[in-house]
Design brief:
single chain; about 300 residues; alpha+beta; Thrombin, subunit H; nine-stranded mixed β-sheet; 19 strands; Trypsin_dom
Amino acid sequence: MHIFILSISLLAAVNAMSGGRAVTSSEQFPFFVTLTTPILCGGTIISLDPAWIITAAHCIEDSTSGSLIGYGSREFSKQTYATIKQIVLHPLYVSNKQLETQVYASNRTDIVPYDIGLLQLTKPLPQNEYTDRIPLLADQEIATLETMGMGYTGYQQPHADLLQYTECNSSRTGVLHDDNFNHSIILAHSEANLCHGDSGSPLVTKLYGSNSYYLAGILNRILNAYDPDPNQVSCPFHQSESTLFVNAFVKPYVHIKWIMNSTQLSKEALLNNVYKPVASHASSQRRSLLMFISCLLLL
């Protein structure tokens, strides 16, 4: 996948993981999905019924309805595929085409918070130990951070066959001075280097005293990085020997009103860690109404 690399010097639109650890069970991150066309990316299930995926906008700006996402397995080759019905980009997202034609300066940090998008699938997803949704994190205090992906595993290396993950630490770096960016983005260092193919992947956390994961961010940039060969991207290089990669994750909760409006999901449905299928609830209401009418007819 194409990675935005700008040095803030450079902000790179992200992609995969070099030095990550292989996930040992498909039950570990059942909310993770893989996007393979038009570019390799990660994504996250935020609703099963109706089925909605959240990812980075640059991952799906060239996608079309009928494209596929993979889910339900830590192994790339064993994932089950589902069909995309609808693609929704954030209305303030600035596309790659606009950046390439220099309508916008490529190192502007104020455009990064809007690199977020949604996918609706044609059918509901099943809920089981290998497939599940994850609630969005509000502004609670967090304990640990983890991210995962199936991106490239090294410079000029293939993408991962097994889902990789790594722990992250929030960064206090002072390279960004845009208030909207600072409010909307989580900056984090990771033990493993993220690469092309990891864009759109989730940053997750467990609240203190909880074993449930919450979605804190969506990967959309790598700071202080560059591609040595922009025509054959795999994993980026450090901008200089003295700089560390800094990963930028947009906070979904900052955009919750847009997500609610786009998906017609309630705030409770997006934040609650107890799954209540929206469509099934509506069906239940219809069944109750029909039973009530039947009783009236019998009377």
